[in-house]
Hints:
Helix 4 (about 140-195) runs parallel beside helix 5 and helix 9 (about 345-365) packs antiparallel against helix 10 (about 420-430). The chain has four domains: about 10-40 and about 145-190; about 45-140; about 220-295, Helix Hairpins (Orthogonal Bundle), CATH 1.10.287; about 300-454, Histidine kinase-like ATPase, C-terminal domain (Heat Shock Protein 90, 2-Layer Sandwich). The two termini are about 15 Å apart. Helices cover about 50% and strands about 15% of the residues. Strands 1, 2, 3, 4, 5, 6 and 7 form a seven-stranded antiparallel β-sheet that branches. Strands 9-11-12-14-13 form a five-stranded mixed β-sheet, covered by helices on one side. A two-stranded antiparallel sheet has the order 8-10. By secondary structure, the protein is α+β, with helices and mostly antiparallel strands. The protein has helices spanning about 10-40, 50-60, 95-105, 140-195, 210-255, 260-265, 265-290, 305-325, 345-365, 420-430; strands at about 45, 75, 80-85, 85-90, 110-115, 120-125, 130-135, 300-305, 330-335, 345, 370-380, 380-385, 435-440, 445-454.
Amino acid sequence: xxxxxxxxxxxxxxxxxxxxxxxxxxxxxxxxxxxxxxxxxxxxxxxxxxxxxxxxxxxxxxxxxxxxxxxxxxxxxxxxxxxxxxxxxxxxxxxxxxxxxxxxxxxxxxxxxxxxxxxxxxxxxxxxxxxxxxxxxxxxxxxxxxxxxxxxxxxxxxxxxxxxxxxxxxxxxxxxxxxxxxxxxxxxxxxxxxxxxxxxxxxxxxxxxxxxxxxxxxxxxxxxxxxxxxxxxxxxxxxxxxxxxxxxxxxxxxxxxxxxxxxxxxxxxxxxxxxxxxxxxxxxxxxxxxxxxxxxxxxxxxxxxxxxxxxxxxxxxxxxxxxxxxxxxxxxxxxxxxxxxxxxxxxxxxxxxxxxxxxxxxxxxxxxxxxxxxxxxxxxxxxxxxxxxxxxxxxxxxxxxxxxxxxxxxxxxxxxxxxxxxxxxxxxxxxxxxxxxxxxxxxxxxxxxxxxxx
Length: 454
């Protein structure tokens, strides 16, 4: 079975990196907000008492009526820049920035002052003719404060870029630090699945956290699995010898006892059939165990599929004729007629797969039926299809046909079948990195298709 690879956007590395970067960026954004708040440029602030003390007597004196004009110097360096006489009047020639600042000061509910360029605007102040906005030159200290705030604002974009880069690097380090041991555990688990008794865990078992505990558990599990697997293989070897030997001796003894008279004896024929059935069951179980325990390894070779199928047909015809007699066997195997390429695969496993499927087709189809074998080669894949002309299988039971010892319909004729043939085929196809599936043919019969890389 082909291992499903994790896509990059599903990987734990990507997710952790995203989370870490988001958290660090969020923290940096909060810090920047605080910096921006602390380093914001000076805005309107309460008006100092000097404006009120110096200007109120002049602005409210009866003699000032009609003398208050925008741009007029009132006293010292204090100049009137805006006055409301129904409409707000400004000093001619003011820039948009200066007009906006004057409007902001004028509309303030409380007297305020703010630095605009190299001047300080203050107001609104009450006068005989309405509220006014006054300006005076900014002091050196006030200009220095403005310059420092401007330097802070110029530095903030560079600080923001630096913070984003630093947060990304920090998230990358955190993600690497967290994901690296997980990748080591993943690789070690794959080694255990492949049969390793001592997976490469590097320094993980020395850690004192949960990952270290998991690594130590995996190490013990790998050793236990290897021990159990070795014991099972030894048992399989012993059972293989102990079961094959007496069955083989029984077959030899039965062949030596066979005479023309016994060949017609019903009890002798049943004994011969049961001994052969027992040998087939033992061989199937041992084959299944060897496949499940990884004892059968893939040995690729260039296989002429047409030649293999012809040899298989001849062998099966000979077998069925020998079992049933020339006058009793009328089955037919139809081979593909199209030209087929050679396939780089294991010839032993391929032969076993096709033979089991053909036997299964004769076993569950009509006794004198036809089994059709077709083959197709598409791109890098090769497929073999074996179809019988029997009643097929219930749709809801098709997926269970490959389970060991499962038989879809116990009332049907099963010959010597015990429900292991398709299970053996499925295990063997998995070793070939292929796929096998069954379906009912639209015109009747069961159709099983095996596909694997060429």
